[in-house]
Design brief:
A 5-stranded mixed β-sheet has the order 2-3-1-4-5, with helices on one face. Helix 3 crosses helix 4. The longest helix is centred in the N-terminal third of the chain and has 12 residues. By secondary structure, it is α+β, with helices and mostly antiparallel strands. The protein is built from 7 helices and 5 strands. A hairpin with a 5-residue loop joins strand 2 and strand 3.
Length: 157
């Protein structure tokens, strides 16, 4: 796969850059666009973005490694995040995580053999009032239980 943004993505990047005094400040938004396009942030993507934003590759790599929202390896088409922090744990988050783990037969940060699902146990997604919660890609589900999780998973193609 060629590591290159198309014209529409480059326009989106220019729009992000226009909001900040330096190109460096646009880095996180550009990384998000890259992850959306390429699925994860590889070394080649890091080099491409560093060149695009006139930054040292080590700076881009440092941001990627610091933030857990950037994938450092290929993940599933449906990336499932299950919160097991205090509020979610007290309302069944750990049981939900183990249910998904057993159903998909994968562990934390693993991908199903068909590449359809990946699973991640997360500390907190800021939805304590709606605990327990999961996220599947960019869709958030609060006040969830095992039955609801199973229904959601069964609807994914």
């Amino acid at each position: 796969m060629e590591i290159k943004f198309n014209e529409q993505e480059l326009q989106e990047i220019e729009q992000i850059k226009s909001k900040y005094p330096t190109e460096q400040s646009a880095l996180m938004g550009v990384l998000w666009i890259a992850q959306r396009k390429f699925g994860w942030i590889s070394n080649d993507v890091i080099l491409y973005i560093a060149d695009l934003l006139h930054l040292p590759p080590a700076h881009v790599e440092g941001v990627v490694k610091f933030y857990t929202m950037y994938f450092k390896k290929p993940m599933g088409k449906y990336h499932i995040q299950v919160c097991t922090n205090v509020s979610c744990m007290l309302r069944g988050g750990e049981q939900i995580f183990h249910f998904v783990k057993d159903k998909l037969k994968i562990g934390n940060m693993e991908v199903t053999p068909d590449g359809k699902f990946s699973l991640e146990e997360v500390e907190c997604m800021g939805a304590c009032g709606g605990a327990p919660m999961i996220a599947i890609n960019e869709d958030y589900y609060e006040n969830i239980n095992i039955e609801k999780v199973e229904q959601i998973l069964n609807k994914l193609d």
